[in-house]
Amino acid sequence: GRDDWSSTWRSITVPSVHGQDVLDFLVTSSLMRPRYMIRLFETAKRRAINMGQQRIEEPDYDSALEDLGWTVIEDLDLELRDIVRDADLLLFDVAQLDGACGLPELRDAVAKRVGATKVVDRVIDVLLWSGAIGIAPMTVPSFIYDCGYKLRALRSLMDCNPDAEVCLHPTLRNLFAKKTKDVAAAA
After folding, report:
1. Strand residues in 25-131 grouped as ranges (E)
2. 148-182: per-residue pLDDT in tens?
3. Any residues with CB less than 8 A from the CB of 108 and at least 6 apart, and which?
4. What residues contact 143, with CB distance under 8 A and at least 6 apart?
5. Whole-angstrom Cα distance, residue 90 to residue 19?
6. Which of 52, 84, 125, 169 holds its CA 20 to 30 A away from the CA of 3?
């Protein structure tokens, strides 16, 4: 029964990652996408096995999270490629906004790659729809999965709160923060 599952789960993984329940970590880090959640867990498991460990440890999840971040970037690049020639560069431009910015800063960053056209809104819609960015009118950001995958709800949140912050999803924010630290340390 339930006790069997709990003891089995505890035998294969740490109970938490940076203070967050491991299942919550897997769900939130995966941008609520089942394929990303499976990939995140499988990558952590594979790393633990390769390291000769008996169970998945926190560093395994950290490494898997970084891998997932790059996968999300690649997937977004493919989604944006039809509307933005240098989509991969655009994502790095957005990441340079330090994880959160105002809507005008986001629009400026996108416009630098696509020009000041209606394409800016199309790019923002893709970023919103994918869960790569969310809107924080107060302190807690709302991502597409927080509003039933209703893009209009996020758009309305942006329109009604022009001073709201636009936030990069933590999986991407952590990836870019780590890379920025790595580059600074190497300099």
Report:
1. 100-102
2. 999 999 999 988 988 889 999 999 888 777 655 55
3. none
4. 31, 32, 131, 133, 134, 169
5. 33
6. 52
Strand partners of residue 20? 17
Burial (CB count <10 Å: 0-12, 13-18, 19+), residue 150? exposed
Residue that is written with structure tokens 């989604």 in the block: 79
128: nearest Cα among 82, 168, 83: 168
Report the predicted TM-score, pTM, of the whole model to 2 decimal places. Answer: 0.84
CA neighbours closer than 13 Å in the CB half-sphere of residue 13: 21
CB 11 within 8 A of CB 55: yes
Q: What is the DSSP letter of 164?
A: P
In 9-146, DSSP assigns E strands to 16-17, 20-21, 100-102, 133-136
Nearest to 103 by CA among 128, 80, 66: 128
End-to-end CA distance of the chain: 54
